[in-house]
Design brief:
Radius of gyration: 19 Å
Largest sheet: none
Order of helices and strands: H
Shape: elongated
Helix content: over 70%
Number of strands: 0
Distance between the termini: 47 Å
Length: 50
């Protein structure tokens, strides 16, 4: 029973350890796109509508 609880946690940590560069790149690109969208919305509020 205890192993069933620990297995997903260890899997999550091993995936994080293995794929951290891709995850960091995804976060940084997402942040840049969000800033770009905010600047476009301030410059032209019709372009920023969803």
């Amino acid at each position: 029973m205890f192993a069933d609880i620990i297995r997903p946690i260890t899997l999550g940590f091993s995936l994080l350890r293995r794929f951290w560069p891709q995850l960091m790149a995804l976060v940084l690109v997402g942040d840049l796109l969000m800033q770009l969208a905010a600047k476009v919305a301030l410059a032209n509020h019709f372009a920023g509508r969803g």
